[in-house]
Amino acid sequence: METTPQKSNRHGLLDDAQGIAYGGFMASVGVVLLTHLGFVTGQTAGLAILISYATGWSFGLVFFVVNLPFYWLGYRRLGLRFVLKSLAAVTLLSVLVTVLPGLLQFGAVHPLVGALLFGCITGSALLALFRHGASLGGIGIVALYLQDATGFRAGWTQLIFDACLFAVALALRDWQTVAWSALGALVLNLVIAINHRRDRYIA
């Protein structure tokens, strides 16, 4: 669930605060829907979800802990401002996904609708975070670091990581659930790919 955040000095403190709050809240709704359906996803969130499914541990706690090692790389690659904003977004998501299930329950949701809704909701959340210089995780940071160090394309690193996650998911979920999950991840990435354009976004 990561990509390179857009650096911009045009947003003020309140702008950034509302953007991160919106992104964190909408992403948490997406995760609640995702786990309600038993789906998985990619990137750091996907890793945390698989660990949560396999152990029964709280996703919020696992997600927060899994991200800790990546902040140093984020600081070196993208600066302190990015790390602090990302820490705020990750912390908000970790808290909200723990609280929201007591306030928001889903009934019957068709997997197709669930996959599309997850992709759209979470895509909009990540767009808000990226446009305010924040992120929700570390695999994208590692990918950028490896690209700088070795020349290996960041997109390939993320693709390989996600492929491994979905392969592991087949051991924990049936193939139909994994297939619907892949559709949700595809929609999410299409939302970002189409809308997260520096040449189109003006703030």
UniProtKB/TrEMBL annotation:
The keyword Repeat does not apply. The chain crosses the membrane at residues 20-39, 45-70, 82-103, 109-130, 178-195. Keywords: Cell membrane, Membrane, Transmembrane, Transmembrane helix. It is a multi-pass membrane protein. GO terms for cellular component: plasma membrane. It is found in: Cell membrane. InterPro entries: UPF0750_membrane, YitT. Signal peptide: none annotated. The keyword Methyltransferase does not apply. This is YitT family protein. It comes from Paracoccus shanxieyensis.
